[in-house]
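Good morning,

Attaching, inline, the backbone tokens for the sequence recovery test we're adding to the shared suite. The designed sequence is right after.
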């Protein structure tokens, strides 16, 4: 019997696209179209990332101009390490795989009395603009049969 990691790995291998030749430019992206074109609306280094505060602070390279971008208008951002994050409900999700099915992850800390445990949660969406769903066999099968 196949286990879930093997099923997911087989699915990703079957639908894998070739990775982009150039990494995404750091900055804030207003839409998934900008991500696909690698053209951030506000290029630069993203600092003071606190989506719950209502804005992102971006420092432009070269001019060092500071922009405060409202989170309500942001699809996501790319950091200096060329990692892409999508913002959903003021939460940042790391985009780990991009094709027709997009995989996301984020760390989550759970407090048990005095002990805290951090683990990684995994999510997926159909396309870059699709709704996020917890990554499970049932959800993956349900969304793929619906599309």
């Amino acid at each position: 019997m196949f286990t879930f990691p093997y099923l997911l790995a087989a699915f990703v291998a079957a639908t894998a696209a070739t990775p982009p030749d150039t990494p995404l430019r750091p900055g804030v992206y207003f839409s998934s179209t900008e991500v696909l074109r690698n053209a951030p609306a506000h290029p630069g280094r993203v600092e003071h990332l606190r989506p719950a505060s209502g804005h992102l602070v971006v420092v432009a390279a070269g001019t060092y101009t500071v922009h405060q971008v409202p989170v309500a208008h942001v699809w996501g951002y790319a950091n200096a390490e060329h990692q892409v994050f999508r913002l959903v409900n003021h939460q940042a999700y790391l985009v780990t795989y991009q094709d027709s099915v997009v995989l996301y992850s984020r760390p989550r800390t759970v407090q048990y009395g005095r002990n805290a445990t951090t683990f990684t949660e995994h999510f997926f969406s159909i396309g870059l603009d699709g709704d996020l769903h917890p990554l499970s066999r049932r959800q993956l099968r349900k969304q793929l049969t619906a599309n």
